[in-house]
Write the structure tokens for this entry.
Amino acid sequence: MSSTTGDADELVRDPTRMSAKRWYVMAGGWSLLLTPWLYIGATSDRPPVVRVLLVTTVVAYIACYVHGLFVAMRRRQPAFSAALVLVMAALWAVMVVGFGPQDGAVYTVSYVIVTVIALVPSPWTAGAVALAFGGAAGIGWLWLAGEGVTGPDILGMLAISIAMLGQFRLIRANSELREAREELARLAVSAERERMARDLHDVLGHSLTTITVKAGLARRLLESGDVGRAGEEVTDVEQLGRQALAEVRSTVSANRVASLGRELAGAREALRAAGIEADLPAAVDDVPPDRQQAFAHVVREGVTNTIRHSGAGRCAVRLTPMSVEIVDDGVGSPPGTPAGHGISGLTERLAAVGGRVEAGPAPTGGYRLLAEVLPRTAAVRRREPAG
């Protein structure tokens, strides 16, 4: 894997998801509070070697906080994070010893505590901060035994720790909100793609099947010399092609609404062209309007499968207010045959109106496709867990 890909993976694991520019501005601003110790170390009356050591220690402390913490948040490697915390703790201890109690360097432990807050996962952050705070207070007490660490000193470090803990929790919360928003956007795109794929399958599968059947019928009529009927079939093919094009455009623009009555009329014509006897309901008035669109897709899918796969001589559509059933006397399908895209799409459509789909061999032979809307109480019982 290339380094670029690795960097991208590391960026994803960063809990703050802050860009380098934003982090360096924020961390650089906080590090300005350490500049007084640069001046104190450079202008003190200590030997030159000690002054160089103190200034180098402060610079290294700032570098670890500004750059080292940024790298550690990106990598999220426990060994690297632990090493960074230990190095910063050692640099802080050198600062406390080198500057002495009169310069108040003990307060710079806040940067170590911030590093712990940023690197330790949230369930253990509070405990890690308490441990770091206790260790800092203990070291400060030992090295400043002459003057001692006063109560206000401890309260000051505790207040800074709590403030930093809240700040990083807020940053993490904002990051989680961004991730949730991006996930919702991805789900919306995926749902739209699935809708388009399902609708295009329904539209093109049925239309192209009907066009193919009618074109074959027109060819046979031409071969038999019946030019008049062949011309009628070709005209129907042209109309079906125009209708399919309009439906594809409507599908892409999410404006397509299936009509149960129109689907039954189209099914009658398609079955006639395929030489299959059709037994279809004469009206759809008994079906509630909120179910007609879902039932229309069931009729389209069932009739299309009958024409394409069954080799049937008869196809019947039975319609009730609660269900629609398509049964043919064809070869059917072997038990256990996995459902295709069409049946999967119907399952999703029926689930949206509180229904279910059954597809498989009919008890009397042939193939049976049943879609029914469950009563509201039955649907609730099906969703309740056992017991």
In short: The longest helix spans residues 151-224.
